Amino acid sequence: MALEVTQVLLNAQAIDGTVRKQAEESLKQLQEQDLPLFLLSLSRELANEEKPVESRKLAGLILKNALDAKEQHRKSDLVQRWLALDPSAKNQIKMCLLQTLSSLVADARSTTSQVIAKVAGIELPQKQWPELIGSLLSNIHQLPPHVKQATLETLGYLCEEVSPEVVDQDQVNKILTAVVQGMNATEGSTEVRLAATRALYNALGFAQANFSNAMERDYIMRVVCEATLSPDLKIRLAAFECLVAISSTYYDKISPYIQDVFNITAKAVREDQEPVALQAIEFWSSVCDEEIDILEDYGGDFTGDSDIPCFYFIKQALPALVPMLLETLLKQEEDQDQDEGAWNIAMAGGTCLCLVARTVGDDIVPLVMPFIEENITKPDWRQREAATYAFGSILEGPSADKLTPIVNVALTFMLSALTKDPNNQVKDTTAWTLGRIFEFLHGSSVDAPIITPANCQQIITVLLQSMKDVPNVAEKACGALYFLAQGYEEIGASSPLAPFFQEIVQSLITVTHREDAGESRLRTAAYEALNEVVRCSTEETASMVLQLVPLIMIELHKTLEGQGLASDERGRQSELQGLLCGCLQVIIQKLGSSEPTKYVFLQYADQIMGLFLRVFACRSATVHEEAMLAIGALAYASGPEFAKYMPEFYKYLEMGLQNFEEYQICAVTVGVVGDIARALEDMILPYCDGIMTLLLRDLSSNQLHRSVKPPIFSCFGDIALAIGENFEKYLIYAMPMLQSAAEMSARTCADDELTDYTNSLRNGILEAYSGIFQGFKNSPKTQLLIAYAPHILQFLDSIYMGKDMDDVVMKTAIGVLGDLADTLGSHAGSLIQQSMSSREFLNECLSSEDLLIKESAEWAKLAISRAISVTEDFDTRVDVTFGSECISSLMFARVLTPYHHPLCTMSLTSSLPEYLISRSDCFLLWVEGRDVLLENADPALHYSFFIFTKLLG
Questions:
Q1: ∠ CA 626-628-633 to the nearest 5 degrees?
Q2: For the segment 808-824, what is each residue's pLDDT rounded down to a tens digit?
Q3: How far is CA 808 from CA 295, 757, 805, 851, in A?
Q4: What pTM did the predictor assign?
Q5: Which of 562, 569, 857, 897 shows the greatest Cβ crowding within 10 Å of its Cβ?
């Protein structure tokens, strides 16, 4: 028997806070006391046509929330709770839900569609509710349009919730047939056609086989294109959203339709309402994204083996596409530059133009330049702004050779416009364009410098002057200064900015004190620019950077003095604290990188650490993150001296490692543990039990975001490297964790995002192994690691054979192979020989074009050659004419290698076919070997010496 929940549900929506809170508590109690009965009561409330709409909607919402949650761990719990329910109760709930699809109340139907999809998302992968899709498809033939509409909406949500692998192809075909038929222009109900079009958007991921069939693909594309011409705005919008999704999901299948789609999108951009026009532009942005990715992945070198060839749709459409996009730039809105969330046709067109420039490179320049030249000096601000926006949009993509002559001519004009144009929107776009000039055409990699001694002072003067302008213009000027400074990052001993350093810093600090600095991100932009100016400064301005330390400390101290602030004021204070901590972090890193400045700076270390500890008392997530990063920098600069701060700081370290909800803070704290371990080395030992306990707990937790787990593994390596053989007590806990994660990460995956995470996880695991092996090197406890070597080699084999590791993982992996050989010596030799792919992997790394990979491989080769015993491959490479003495000497040299005999080293590092060891060398080797034998009981050494002696006679 169901509960009567109507009044409780209505009370839960009451204006009176007391009534509302009491009702919410009642609902919570009902849920905890008898979950099946509670869910059944909600489903019956939802299905009952006599109940109020308000109670039915809330019943559906609570049902949905009982099945799903944003947090992965909570979602898993809810799934298990549903699966554990009595089958009879579940069946009754599902019957109520299917019944509600026929409701006359639209809100009830819509909520029910979502609930059914949530249940399907749980049950279909478990092979439960197999009749669902058949039941829904039978509804499609119902006469009442509202039932058909609700069913199509449900199918759309179902496709969003369920993985394509869960539904067999026959059912997929039926779903797509129902959806596409519902979209057809012959469908009399607008609501049905809209629901079908939205359903197709979610169902596209299921249509791989259908898009591979030309006839089915033609039909789907025809219906979608027809829907873009519907008289109903919502249908047109949904149809264009389908086209955007098709352009990315089925890029390689749209070639036959591209001309028709261009005509449709061009008409929409020029004539349709803004929401539709925005999606029409988005289609071309999406195509650009696809082609940029393909060109970056394959470098434009396509063969028959390429998975997805580039069809160069953008290049072909260029003569018509660019004029269309340039037209959109003239459709600006007044004061759009002051609205951070603004998005309109002009902004979408400019964004698409940026992507087109990145896609086609130099080819775009001659198509855009006439528009710029025609409009840049026009009296109408819209034309000047559009021309400037067009210029800024093509600065990434074309070559420096193509752009530099144009920029050299335009630079003086733009500097003048930034200070003299009467329109703020023009000045805003001009400052943004200058920033892009400095970002893409200024720096050590550019052959012909845009900024010269002749114009450097003028540029700085104009930018500093513009920082006094209205907030949005000043913010863009700060951004331009950021990229101006960044371009001098690798300038050497003397920077062209050095003569202006003090003036720049003072101007930026003045900006941070403006009363309107909270508008348009101005204060944040000023601190970001200040940080970059400091980071890219040279030793000649180090004394001025040092003067910043007390200044920023005073600013931070002021923010800690405010008491009794209103909530919005506290928010601003927290933001400012975060910016100041970030600024101190950059200053610490800069001054800490040079011994003379580090010595002077460390006089402030106690005061700075005191401020950071006070910041932690503020309990603001953003501030904690910035303060934690700054402390990591301070630990690195302080080295062993940081130990004195640990007793007071450790509790905040613990808090950070336990902060699952604000997982970014947890990730940053893990990184700081690594910084501290490197700084303190074995002085971190007193804190290791607590730290390792928390790190292991983090790894075991389902609540912690997965992105934190790779850095935790890396942190194991940092700790092991710091405390050496003292890590022994943690091996029995850490190694099984590493092995389990290694097995999981060894599997290849097709999803790009998952591949990135998998590589991140692999790198963390490998860094852990590397730190552990290096930490135990030359320790009597090295033998503790021998048992783990086979699994590590198996892991290296599997990720090499998977062929999906990135360069970072490749470098770390070949380093671990070297660490294994270097630490375990001869114990690793036979294992490396047995490894399926170690030799191939090593050779591939040795021939890599990446210098870091090649350098690691060279070291690994040397370590392996010292550790490995004689192999069949090794023997076959020794020419038989060397004689038994030579062979024996080389065999013995192998065994003697760990004892660092000079002849052994020579014999192993020389090219064997060219190396011929003489009899006198053999005798010297025998004498040295005898001496080594007197001090060592290694059986392999004794046996090899015995054979060597016998052969020498």
A1: 95
A2: 999 999 999 999 988 98
A3: 21, 13, 8, 12
A4: 0.83
A5: 857
